């Protein structure tokens, strides 16, 4: 298989593609991704949380909020994150620490992400339902593998359950915060999100944006782990941690084309790769993120589209089915919605067509979601005629894809149109799971290119478009022999 990637660029018969040059290696920080969006217009809307009131956290934001629900501009979000970063640094939080958020989609989740970018922390969004009363210890995340310094939970019940599930972290975590319920000062070591120190430590003569780090401090930014996503957990297969570096994320974002002032309505879970990708693309381009609720509601989603003139909807297949059939759809004006993006493997083309018709969008498409790396597949053109309902797109710059045989040990690359296992690679893909768990999914070919073996059966057509056929069970064995 020597020089197969080079040969494949001239041979359209093989199911293998190299996306070419991606994000340039350099000193960019995660903070700079957010700064680009800020610079598009500090008074542009950055975040709308329809389920949180206009006065929520008004002491932290420092200004009179606008709108009937929580609606913050880039200037407000940046200033609030900067001020809280000062407070949390005062608690002893340091660069390289980890922020864990057991939160639904909300303003505190967004602030946690922005603060992590400012302080160069690792942001870890986790499913808040795993802290439910009867969750059981089998759903415990391996947080001992991370330098966890800050933990965010919604309420007192979740605080109790966190202490029970993670007793070894009680001493090492510097800052444990309850976000959506008032508690007494230092309740069992927990504090309120809206801490009094915010106002005392506020830098009154500072600008809205924090100062840049010195160039020598920025040289190692590429390899820093910016985010850890966990794969969906089950009783048989515990969650696997996926450490995404700054370079992984920048590669995934560099090719995304979004106009400022667009409004992204995101209904996927707060711990999903789909949500993370959507908010990062929006905030990098100066667009707005709209969270219609702490949990999914078709009625609240329809209402948010109508009231806030959302232009793009990001959801999963089950949510789309609810949006199509819910009676509130006919009671709302959805004319502002331009596009529909449905995340998940093997989304039916018929469901996308129904969604496009029911929600009156100009176009609809599905996309591949995986915690191991996003932005591998997509559309190189913004032209609607290049998109198909059956495909999740083609390889993007900085990435690699191929369809290989599922029989045998050498993963033979198949011809175009043949069904096989989807392999993805390139700079957007992580190097491996935390602690080496299930790392047989990762390998390096003789040319030094890194690959990840997905659980999807797929085909590649003559135009290089990928169609997902089905998702294999986690129990399917993977045996890799590098060629």
UniProtKB/TrEMBL annotation:
Cross-referenced Gene3D superfamilies: N-terminal domain of ligase-like (3.40.50.12780)
Keyword Ligase: yes
Cited Pfam families: AMP-binding
Residue ranges annotated for the AMP-dependent synthetase/ligase domain, each copy included: 69-434
Keywords from the named record: Ligase
InterPro entries, per the entry: AMP-dep_synth/lig_dom, ANL_N_sf
Signal peptide positions on this chain: none
UniProt entry tagged with the keyword Ligase: yes
Family indicated by similarity: Belongs to the ATP-dependent AMP-binding enzyme family.
Protein name: AMP-dependent synthetase/ligase domain-containing protein
């Amino acid at each position: 298989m020597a020089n197969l990637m080079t040969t494949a660029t001239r041979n359209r018969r093989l199911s293998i593609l190299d996306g070419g040059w991606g994000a340039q290696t350099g000193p960019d920080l995660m903070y700079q991704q957010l700064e680009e969006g800020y610079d598009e217009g500090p008074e542009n809307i950055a975040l709308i949380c329809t389920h949180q009131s206009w006065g929520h956290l008004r002491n932290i934001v420092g200004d009179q909020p606008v709108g009937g629900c929580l609606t913050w501009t880039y200037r407000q979000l940046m200033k609030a994150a900067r001020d809280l970063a000062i407070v949390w640094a005062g608690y002893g939080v340091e660069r390289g620490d980890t922020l864990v958020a057991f939160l639904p989609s909300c303003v505190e989740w967004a602030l946690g992400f922005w603060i992590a970018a400012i302080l160069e922390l690792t942001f870890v969004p986790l499913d808040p339902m795993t802290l439910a009363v009867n969750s059981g210890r089998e759903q415990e995340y391996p947080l001992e593998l991370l330098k966890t310094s800050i933990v965010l939970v919604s309420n007192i019940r979740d605080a109790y359950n966190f202490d029970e599930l993670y007793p070894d972290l009680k001493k090492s975590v510097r800052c444990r915060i309850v976000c959506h319920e008032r508690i007494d000062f230092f309740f069992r070591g927990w504090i309120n999100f809206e801490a009094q120190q915010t106002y005392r430590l506020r830098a009154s003569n500072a600008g809205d944006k924090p100062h840049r780090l010195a160039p020598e401090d920025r040289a190692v930014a590429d390899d820093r782990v910016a985010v850890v996503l966990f794969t969906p957990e089950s009783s048989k297969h515990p969650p696997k941690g996926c450490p995404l570096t700054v370079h992984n994320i920048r590669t995934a974002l560099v090719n995304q084309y979004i106009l400022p002032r667009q409004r992204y309505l995101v209904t996927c879970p707060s711990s999903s790769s789909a949500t993370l990708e959507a908010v990062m693309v929006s905030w990098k381009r100066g667009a707005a993120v709209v969270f219609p609720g702490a949990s999914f509601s078709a009625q609240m989603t329809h209402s948010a589209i109508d009231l806030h003139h959302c232009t793009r909807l990001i959801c999963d297949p089950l949510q789309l089915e609810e949006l199509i059939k819910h009676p509130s759809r006919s009671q709302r004006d959805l004319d502002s919605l331009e596009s529909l993006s449905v995340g998940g493997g093997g989304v039916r083309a018929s469901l996308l067509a129904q969604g496009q018709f029911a929600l009156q969008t100009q176009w609809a498409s599905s996309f591949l979601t995986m915690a191991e790396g996003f932005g591998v597949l997509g559309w190189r053109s913004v032209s609607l005629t290049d998109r198909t309902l059956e495909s999740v797109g083609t390889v993007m710059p900085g990435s690699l894809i191929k369809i290989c045989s599922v029989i045998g040990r050498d993963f033979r690359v198949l011809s175009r149109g043949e069904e096989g296992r989807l392999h993805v690679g390139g700079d957007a893909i992580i190097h491996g799971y935390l602690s080496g768990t299930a790392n047989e999914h990762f390998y390096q070919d003789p040319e030094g290119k890194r690959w990840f073996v997905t659980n999807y059966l797929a085909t590649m057509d003559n135009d290089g478009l990928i169609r997902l056929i089905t998702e294999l069970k986690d129990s399917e064995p993977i045996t890799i022999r590098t060629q």
